[in-house]
Design a protein that fits this description.
Oligomer: homodimer
Number of domains of chain A: 3
Structural class of chain A: alpha+beta
Number of strands of chain A: 28
Radius of gyration of chain A: 27 Å
Number of helices of chain A: 20
Helix content of chain A: 25-40%
Shape of chain A: globular
C-alpha cells in the first residue's frame, strides 16, 4: 500500500523511543529545582461530613515543615469543573468532605518524610453526615445529598433519541430486554500524578498532563487568574487514558499555592495508593436495554436506560453519559432509538473518562444482548452485523455523518481471518469464539477552544522544527505529527525535531489528548502548517527552477517537477537561498496551520447534531479456552479488523489496538476496585491487590487487519485508532466465554472462580 | 512626545527586572542537571609551542575523574571560525599552542576540586617555539609565524577609500598627521562564560550566549554535525558586549564532548581569571591619521593607517578593521578618504568585538586630531563638526545611505545644554570640557542567515505570547520587543509574555545580538508579526462590527473605529470568537514576521556598498576637574545628545547610553590588561588588579537628550542606541582633560600618576 508516500504508512519507530527506553525521558516526578520543598496531601477519613475546624498548629511546629494550607487558602467558594453549569470542585475541601480520599489540607516540608509526619499532626474536626454509596439509593427521595443543590443526587441527564421506539418494537418479530452492569476500574497508568510548582513572577507548574491547556485554564480559574497568568510546562507523561491527567487536581493547586506561600518550588507526587483511592475512575454503569428485530435480523428499535455511578463530583461525567449514546446510532442502522441516562452522585471517588469514555460500558451491554438475540433466533452475529451495518454516506437519524465507513469490510475480513464461520458454535468443548463490533468518534467539540494548531520552522540545513499542540501521552502523536510534516515536505524522519511537551506560554494552543482527536485535529493542523511552509518554499523554487510552483514535488530532500526531473534543487540549498539572499525578502520560512471541523459543540443533554468529524469502526474476534478444572481462561487468538481511515503508522496502530485490547481484557478478567460496603473506602489500593494485568498476564496472539476507508477530512484519510472502536472486545470476550461454557456470567471481572462456579452449576 | 502611542516612548521597566533583582533569573552557571559532572580546562603555560605529547594517565587514575579529552577527541583538522576564509580555531589545541591561556585539555570529574586537581596531573610535552608579541615585530620578515599559512602574520587587511586623498590634501590649507594607540581591555561582564551539556539523543547545551544561533552553528561545524543536530538553550546572560559569548569557545565544545564521552551532563564554568587570560578582548589599535582641512574648517581629505593587534586567532577580527573604516565616511562629509588597515597575529589572547567594534579606537584617534586641528586653527570643534556634518539623504562616496540623520540637531542641542560656548577654553584652571561626535551602524550583514523573525500567538484571554529570536543579554531587547507588540495590538505590557531565552530547536531564527541590530531587525520582525496577527483579528472584527477592517483601531485592549467609537469589542471577546466559533475557520491566531534589509553582505576587504540600513549619531560633552595635587580626575557632568531615530523606551535608551559612557570612562581612566613583555602572560588577571570600575568609581551626573530623526525603515523610526555612537566619549574625555591641563596625554588609561606627571612637566 501507499507507494505514493515516502513515510506515511510505513512502520516508523517512536521518536521518543530511545529516551524512554534508556530512562532518560523526564517524567512528572523527575523534575526538580534547587531549594525545592516536598508536599503531601491530607485526605478525608470519612465519606461525608461537614468540616468544623482544622487545627494545623502542631504540624506547623514540626521542624522542617514550611507551610500548611487548607480550603481557606484558596478563593472561597470559587469552584472549578467541567463547564459553567457543573462547577463543584475546590482545590481543597471548603465546606465538607464527600468521600474517603477527598483532599482536606496540604503540607510543604523539607522532605517527604517530614511532610508525611506533619499530616498526622493536623487535626480535622468533622460533623459526620450520612453517606450514600449506591446510585439507586442516592436517587431516592430523602437520600443524603452529596451536593445540597442537586436534588436526588442527579448530576446530569441525557435524553437522546429519534424515531418511535414503540412503533419499532411493534414492527419487530422479537423483542428482548436485559440488564447489564460494569464494575469500577481505574486507568492503570504506571506513572502517578506529579506536580512541581514555582510561583515566581508568574504561577508556573511542571506537570504530567494529558490536556495541558484544559488543565491550566481550570487551574487559573480556581485561583482567580487569567489563563495566561499561569504557565504549565508538560513533562513526559507515563500514560493518561483520560484520567485526571486531563484536568487539574488538588495536587496541582496545592503545589502552586504552597510555592506562593513559601517562595520556594514545591513538588507533590501522588503515591499509587493516592491514585487508587482518589478520583477519577471509569464510571460503573447499570444498563437496561430493550431491542427489537425482525426474525431475519433487521434491527427495528432500541431503548436504553443507563445509570452511571458518578461518585462525589461532576468532573467530565455529563459527557460520559452523552457520548455513550452513540451506541444507538452506530455501528448499526437503527431507525428508532431512545436513550435515557442519568449520572448520579455518591460518596465515592468521582469518575470520569477512561479509554472509550462511556462507549465501552454501553456497547458491552448492547453487544452482548445482540449476541444473545442471535443465539435465540439462530442467526449469525456476523451476518446480522453486516446486514445492519452503517455505510459511507449515511447520516444517522439524529445527525451523525459518516464521511467514511469501512465497517462491512471490517466484518468480512474479521470473519475470514478468524475462521468465524468454521468456528462459532463448532469448537470443541470449553473452547469458544466471540465477536464484537465497536465504534468511536474522532474528536468531539466540548466547549471553549477546539481547534488544533501547529507551527513548522524550516531550518537552514533543510530540516524542520515542529511546535505542535498535540500532547503525546504515550499514544505516539509526536511520531505521527513528525511523519505528516516529513511526508509533506519530502524530508526524512531524522530531519524532524518536535517539541516533547507543551508549554502553555508558547506552544500552539490545542485542547489536548481526549476523544481520539489528536491524529485527526492536530494531524490536520500539522499537515496544513507543513503545506504552508511548502507553498512558500515552492514559490522560491519556482523562480529558481523556472517551473510553475504548483508543479513542484518535494521528495527525498529535493524539489523538482515530474516533467523536468533533471531540474532539481536540494531542499537545504533552497532554504539557504531563501534565508540568505540579498533582498528584503530574505526570511525564515515558518508554516502555520490551524484546524477545526464545522461540527457543532456537543449537546450533552439532547445530543443533537453531528458529534464528530469522523467515526472509526472495529470488529474484534476473540477465541478462548477454558480449563474446566480451574476455570482459568486462556486467550488463544484475537483478530481485529479496524477501519482507521488510513494507517499513518502501522506500528502505532497495532500498538494502540493491542494496548486497548489488553485494557479490555484487564477489565474482563482481573481488575476490580473493591469498596467497603459501609463507608466506601477502597479495599485494594495497590496494583497487586487491584490486579492490574501485565503483558505477561495476557500473552496476546493477535492479528491486526486495517481497513482504509480514507476519510475525506482526516489527515491523509486517517481517523481514530485504538481507543473506543477497540473496546468492543469487552463483549466479544464475554460472548466467547459464553460460547465456550454455554453460560453467560453476569458480573465483571470474569474470574476463574466465577467460571468454575458457572460450569459446575450448569453441570449440576 | 508620542501622544499617538500608548506604550512606545514611555519609560517601561524591564520585563525581567523582578527576576533579576530578586536573584531568581537562571544564568549560565545556575543550570544544573541530576548526575552532573564538573569540567575544567587545562591552559597552555607557554606562548608558542608544538605539542609533542599529552599524558593524561595520572589524571585518569585520580578517583572521581571520569574523562580527560584533548585535541584528539575532536575531528582532526576540522576548524571553526568567522568564515570559510578565516577558520583557524579548534576546540582544544591540535598542533600547537599559540598563547599562554590557549586550551590544551579538559577534565570531567565528580566535583570542581577533583577536576582542578586532575589538571595538575596532566603532563604536556612541548617543543618551545619563538613567540612574537608586538604586531609591528610580527609583520617583519622572519618573525615567528603564529599560523604557518599566514605570511608576516597578516590575518586580514581592509583597503577602503574614495576620491583622491592627495588631491584633497593639496586643496587643504592645513594638513596634520598624528599617531594614536589604544590599550588592551576586556569586556568586563560580571558573569563568566558557562556551559552545561547533555548529549542524549542529540547534542544539547545550555549556555549564556549572546548570539545563540551563530554559536550553535559554529559548534555544530567543529563537531562535524548539521546545525539542527545540536540544540543550544540560552540561559539568562549577565552581559556580553560582543565577547566570545557571541561565539563558541573551548568550554562549550569540551562540555559537549565530555558529556558524550561520559554519558552524563557536564558543566564547565570559567573563573574570572580564565576570562581575563583567554580570548577575546578589545583590539589594541595603532592609528596613524593625516587630515586636511581648509582654514575655515571644511574637511578635504583623510588618510588612515591602522594596525590592529589581533592576538593568536582570527575570531571576528576582519570585521573589526573593516567596520572601523566608517569613521572616514561618517559623521563628517569627507570627499577624499583612504583607509588601510591590517590585523596582525601575535602570541597573545585573541581579540574580537567589544561595544562599538573597532569604531571607538579609530574615532578616538580622529576625534582627538580634529580637536587638535581646531585648537591649531583657533576654530570651534562644535562649529567645525556642524559645518562638516552629514545630513539625511546623504549617500557617502562609498555608498553608505543616510535615510535619517539628526546629527546637526544633536550638535546644537549638546552645545546648548552643556553651555559649550560659554565654557570651552574659558573654564577656571584645572577644569576642562571636551566634545565628541560618534556614529554607528544599526546592524550589518555579515554572512549566512541575516533576517530576524518573530512569532506572536494571540491567547484566548486577549493577551499575546511572543517568541522572538532577539537575544536579551541585558540590553533590554525583551522589553523593547514586548513594547512593540503591545503597541501594535493595543495591549498593555502585563498582557505580554515573551520567551526569556533562545532554544535553537524552536525559537525564531535570528543571528543574535551584535552590531546594534536587535531593535532594528528583531524589532521590525516583532512589529511585522504583531501586524500580521492584528490583520487577522481585524478581519474578524470587521465582520462583527460591520466596518472596514482597515479602519479598525486596536487600543487599550479594545477594537473600534474612529468614526463609530460606540461600536467596540474587547480584544479578549474577539479572540474567543475567533477561537471558538462553530466553523472550520475556528483557529488560533498566530502572527509571523521576518525582517531583513536589502543591503549587501559586508565586504570586509574593500568595504564597498551600504553597510547598514541605518546609522545613529551621538554628540557627547564631558566636563572634568583635575586635582593638581593628586592628578585625580573628577567627572563633573556629561551631556549627551543622541539621534536614536525614535526613543522606544526612554529608560532603556538612557540606561544604554549611560552604560556605554561608564565603559568608555573605564577605558579612559582605569582599565588596562597588562602583559609580561617576554611571554605575554596577563599580569593582572582579576577585576581588582585590572581595575574594572563600578558605578561608585564614576558617579555620573548626566543629561540625556534624544533626537528623533524617525528613520523610515526602523521600527516606529528607531535605530541604534547606546552602543557605538556613544563611544565617542573616549575622545571627548581626552579633549576635556587637555582643556583642563593644557597637555595631551598619549597613552591610555589616563591615570592620576600620568596626569600629575604631565602637569609637573608642563609647569617645569
Amino acid at each position: 500500500m501507499s507507494e505514493e508516500f515516502s513515510i506515511i504508512g510505513k512502520g516508523v519507530p517512536r521518536v521518543d523511543a530511545v529516551l524512554k527506553a534508556t530512562g532518560k525521558a523526564v517524567f512528572g516526578a523527575d523534575v526538580s529545582l534547587p531549594g525545592m520543598l516536598y508536599g503531601k496531601i491530607l485526605r478525608s477519613t470519612v465519606p461525608h461530613a461537614k468540616i468544623l475546624d482544622i487545627d494545623a498548629s502542631r504540624a506547623l511546629k514540626l521542624p522542617g515543615v514550611k507551610a500548611v494550607i487548607t480550603g481557606r487558602d484558596f478563593p472561597w467558594g470559587l469552584k472549578y469543573g467541567f463547564s459553567a453549569l457543573y462547577r463543584d470542585q475546590t482545590p481543597l475541601a471548603q465546606d465538607k468532605v464527600r468521600y474517603i480520599g477527598d483532599e482536606v489540607a496540604a503540607v510543604a516540608a523539607i522532605d517527604e518524610d517530614t511532610a508525611e509526619e506533619a499530616l498526622d499532626l493536623i487535626k480535622v474536626e468533622y460533623e459526620i453526615l450520612p453517606a450514600v454509596l449506591d446510585p439507586f439509593e442516592a436517587m431516592k427521595d430523602g437520600a443524603p445529598l452529596v451536593h445540597d443543590d442537586k436534588p436526588n443526587n442527579i448530576c446530569s441527564v441525557a435524553n437522546i433519541g429519534f424515531g418511535d421506539v414503540e412503533q419499532g418494537f411493534r414492527e419487530s418479530d422479537y423483542v428482548r430486554e436485559d440488564e447489564f452492569s460494569t464494575q469500577a476500574i481505574k486507568h492503570g497508568f504506571i506513572e502517578p500524578h506529579a506536580a512541581l510548582s514555582h510561583w515566581l513572577d508568574k504561577a508556573t507548574i511542571w506537570a504530567n498532563k494529558q490536556s495541558p491547556y484544559v488543565a491550566s485554564r481550570k487551574m487559573a480559574m480556581a485561583l482567580g487568574l487569567k489563563p495566561s497568568q499561569l504557565r504549565l510546562i508538560q513533562t513526559y507523561v507515563g500514560a493518561g487514558f483520560g484520567s485526571v491527567k486531563s484536568d487539574p487536581q488538588s495536587l496541582d493547586f496545592c503545589s502552586l499555592v504552597l510555592s506562593k506561600k513559601t517562595g520556594r518550588p514545591v513538588k507533590i507526587v501522588n503515591t499509587m495508593e493516592d491514585v487508587l483511592v482518589m478520583g477519577e475512575g471509569r464510571h460503573p454503569f447499570y444498563v437496561k436495554v430493550k431491542t427489537g428485530m425482525t426474525k431475519d435480523g433487521m434491527l427495528k428499535a432500541m431503548q436504553v436506560y443507563a445509570v452511571a455511578d458518578g461518585g462525589a463530583y461532576t468532573s467530565i461525567g455529563p459527557i460520559t453519559i452523552a457520548l455513550a449514546a452513540i451506541s444507538t446510532d452506530l455501528p448499526y442502522r437503527i431507525p428508532n432509538a431512545k436513550y435515557d441516562a442519568v449520572r448520579v452522585f455518591t460518596n465515592k471517588a468521582y469518575c470520569g473518562s477512561l479509554r472509550g469514555h462511556g462507549v465501552p460500558q454501553v456497547r458491552w451491554a448492547l453487544g452482548q444482548q445482540l449476541d444473545m438475540m442471535c443465539d435465540d433466533l439462530r442467526l449469525d452475529f456476523a451476518e446480522v452485523s453486516l446486514k445492519n451495518a452503517v455505510h459511507t454516506g449515511d447520516v444517522t437519524p439524529r445527525g451523525l455523518k459518516l464521511y467514511s465507513c469501512g465497517l462491512s469490510e471490517c466484518i468480512e475480513k474479521a470473519v475470514g481471518a478468524s475462521e468465524w464461520k468454521q468456528k462459532r458454535g463448532k469448537l470443541p468443548p470449553y473452547r469458544g469464539i466471540g465477536m464484537s463490533v465497536g465504534t468511536y468518534v474522532s474528536g468531539v467539540k466540548i466547549s471553549g477552544h477546539n481547534s488544533a494548531s501547529c507551527i513548522v520552522r524550516i531550518n537552514e540545513d533543510g530540516t524542520a522544527s515542529i511546535q505542535t499542540g498535540a500532547t503525546d501521552v504515550g499514544q505516539g502523536s509526536s511520531t505521527i505529527v513528525s511523519m505528516i510534516v516529513a511526508e509533506v515536505l519530502g524530508l526524512r524522519m531524522e530531519d524532524i525535531t518536535i517539541n516533547s511537551g507543551i508549554d502553555t506560554d508558547f506552544t500552539p494552543i490545542d485542547p489536548g489528548t481526549y476523544g481520539s482527536r489528536v491524529s485527526f485535529f492536530s494531524g490536520n493542523a500539522a499537515k496544513l502548517a507543513a503545506e504552508d511552509a511548502k507553498r512558500q518554499l515552492a514559490e522560491e523554487a519556482s523562480k529558481l527552477l523556472g517551473v510553475p510552483s504548483e508543479d513542484i514535488i518535494f521528495r527525498d530532500r529535493k524539489v523538482y517537477t515530474a516533467n523536468n526531473p533533471e531540474k532539481v534543487l536540494k531542499i537545504d540549498s533552497l532554504v539557504r537561498h531563501v534565508g540568505q539572499k540579498i533582498s528584503a525578502e530574505n526570511k525564515t520560512v515558518w508554516g502555520r496551520g490551524s484546524f477545526d471541523f464545522d461540527s457543532p459543540y456537543m449537546d450533552f443533554t439532547k445530543g443533537e447534531g453531528n458529534l464528530s468529524p469522523a467515526y472509526a469502526f472495529g470488529v474484534d474476534v476473540i477465541e478462548v479456552e477454558v480449563d474446566p478444572e480451574t476455570g482459568k481462561i486462556t486467550i488463544l487468538n484475537i483478530v481485529g479488523a479496524h477501519d482507521v481511515g488510513k494507517v499513518l503508522n502501522p506500528l502505532g496502530c497495532e500498538g494502540q489496538v493491542s494496548g486497548c485490547w489488553l485494557m479490555c481484557l484487564g477489565q474482563c478478567m482481573f481488575e476490580d476496585l473493591k469498596r467497603d460496603k459501609v463507608d466506601g473506602h477502597v479495599l485494594n489500593p495497590s496494583f497487586l491487590d487491584y490486579k492490574l494485568p501485565t503483558a505477561m498476564d495476557i500473552p496476546l496472539k493477535a492479528k491486526h487487519i486495517f481497513v482504509e476507508s480514507n476519510d475525506p477530512n482526516g489527515p491523509f484519510g486517517a481517523k481514530e485508532a485504538g481507543e473506543g472502536a477497540s473496546t468492543g472486545l469487552l463483549h466479544a470476550f464475554r460472548n466467547a466465554v459464553a460460547d465456550a461454557i454455554g453460560v453467560r456470567i453476569h458480573d465483571l471481572p470474569i474470574t476463574p472462580e466465577k467460571v468454575l462456579k458457572a460450569i459446575n452449576q450448569k453441570k449440576g
